[in-house]
């Protein structure tokens, strides 16, 4: 395998890009470079086709006919595919309104179902989806919500920080796998091990929403009780979230129909098309793994795809930070500050920066005028936990994915140089 099997093979990158809708043009504004992947990744063409196919099917699950039986089989296959993607042993997979809604549900049920007393532990790096849910349900269940301070300079929280805070009576712990503001990934296996060493029976809930598009989820290495993603951030579409929960979390009381199947989490008839599009996503990861390795088993191919994705995104963010060809990188531009630091090995396909010479909103607007889509993050309820301690009112978030190219990064650097 080459150092960067995607970036070093133009034919493969072209093949990858051909599988995504609107990869290089906006359906409303025309040609553009898409560096807003953390706000929602591009959608696989197969997902678009699958969504249309199932939107036209009138049948429901649970009927005595061939169509209904086929729908159930499609749903069950998708659940198995998600378990393969997560490398999850046992447990249950189900869809909900969104990743945020599912985090609220599983955190609520963990807090209400755990033994009385103790604490709920999280960190200040977390997205408000998990922080808000943990704060509410810690209070409702009569527990203290303890927040571990993340490193402002590194943009992440460590296993040691969890080890210093978790105690034997910590009942529920929440973890953010990757920050959508700093772009830094947490060492999930190490954090889980640190929690389990202090409180073996703690219910551990993970927000994997930002991390999922980067490919590597391994719940065998990190035995948690719930892992939640938003499919629109991992090449599927809006309108649903996906959760995996452990068998012991499923055994706790949770919302369910009286007399319904034991352990069931779904409320009402679900969209078969939503499940089917997750099979498309998992199938894509397997296809990519086949292109960059000799792996034959689905999980091994997914792991190979994740490694290739990491290598390519690392090359792209390095180019963005340090420059490419004769172009100056962001880290060398006057007045530019990189959130989370420049040389940070935890970075996953995302660079957030602030300029002392021009307002962030103006930079975002001028980049849009150059056909480059990025996003402003403000010190509000979404990002204030990251930006306020840094003394920043806002920043520009540039989020990449493995279908982005070095030439797109070069165009971005040229544009930023002109703007600043």
TrEMBL record:
The keyword Lyase applies. One of its GO terms (molecular function) is lyase activity. It comes from Thalassococcus halodurans. Residues 33-411 form the Aminotransferase class V domain. This is Selenocysteine lyase/Cysteine desulfurase. It comes from the Bacteria. Keywords: Lyase, Pyridoxal phosphate.
